[in-house]
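Entry 14. Structure prediction run on the chain below.
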Amino acid sequence: GKENVDSWHNRGRGGETTRFHTVNVAQPVRFSRKCPTGWHHYEGTASCYRVYLNGENYWDAVQTCQRVNGSLATFTADQELRFILAQEWDLEEKAFVRKDQRRFWVGYQYVITNRNHSLEGHWEVAYKGSSEVFLPPDPIFGSAMAEKENVLCAQLQCFHFPTLRHHGLHSWYAENCYEKSSFLCKRSQTCVDIKDNIVDEGYYFTPKGNDPCLSCTCHNGEPEMCVAALCERPQGCQQYRKDPKECCKFTCLDP
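Output returned:
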């Protein structure tokens, strides 16, 4: 309180030695994660993205994304696509993933309207309700295309080499939807607690960061109305270590 500080300060001016001893003063907290482990966060869309390596056909990939409260990724603008292309997705080498290039199912479908001399058609968003405004350019047609298929599914190809990746080099493929491929899921940013659990809207939680004594409310994927607890140092212990994930839990390091 200001009154106490002033009285201590005045006494110090009178010649007495003034000592201040503070324990665990609360510091401003930066929340380090808005996505679960394995997901990449993009501030521009307040979204999380993850590549799944297990090769699945388009329809199975759709269901996998839905199980994690997401959908196959669609893009709102070039900036979002550039963010995706610039990421290092830590892909392992699999039978369906070439080392120098990567292709992912994404949330578009190519509807064929004319098969006479050349394939003609247009891109559509796979799921109604998507808010994207970005549609891909004309695709490269995949080699596994069935003759009677009138709907093909979108694969985004990006490249492993950093120089190609950072220049945003990529291609769009219209492929047989039953081919197996890696795929890219997208979901809204969320509250993630200090133990990497996903927190529902309106619930209290301790966010990821450096303060296990923080309690916040989850609102639109952001921690709000946070309250911090301050801990007394452990009694009878000169050297100690604070537990990074448990509030006011210490390990004494004295011999």
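The chain is about 15% helix and 35% strand.
Filed with the rest of this week's runs.
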